[in-house]
Amino acid sequence: MFIPLVFIFGVSDKRHPLAHGVRHGCRVCAMETPHHLVEVRRQLALFFIPAWRWNKRQVLVCNVCGHVESILPEEAEEIGRGGPDSPNT
Ligand SMILES: [Zn+2]
């Protein structure tokens, strides 16, 4: 006897904003522009329910052109603490 099983799954990138208005030099705009600091995680969803997350990384997204630049976790932590690229300095 054959019982059909249907699995609905998908893989996507989930973005979680960490900070806004971070001043950073954009390679595309060739000047210092405000950026969003975003945490991105790859996510596997099974029947539209998140089941597994991996590949966590931090990126800076340019507000002007939308260019995405990966940064090291230490740099993201420094920006979050109010480092040299933070909007508070
Ligand atoms: Zn830009």
Can you walk through the features of this model?
- This protein is mostly beta strands and 89 residues long.
- The protein is 10% helix and 58% strand.
- It is built from 1 helix and 4 strands, in the order ββββα.
- The protein has a 4-stranded antiparallel β-sheet, covered by helices on one side.
- The N and C termini lie far apart (69 Å).
- The model has no long low-confidence stretch (mean pLDDT 88).
- It binds zinc ion (ZN).
Question: What structural keywords apply?
Answer:
89 residues; mainly beta; four-stranded antiparallel beta sheet; binds zinc ion
Number of distinct beta strands? 4
Strand order of the largest sheet: 1-2-3-4
Structural class: mainly beta
Shape by Cα distribution: elongated
User: What's the main sheet like?
Assistant: 4 strands, antiparallel
Order of helical and strand elements? EEEEH
Mean pLDDT: 88
**Which molecules are bound in this entry?**
zinc ion
Beginning-to-end CA distance, first to last residue: 69 Å
Q: What level of helicity do the residues show?
A: 10-25%
Radius of gyration computed on alpha carbons: 18 Å
Portion in beta strands: over 45%
The helix count comes to 1
Give the low-confidence spans.
none
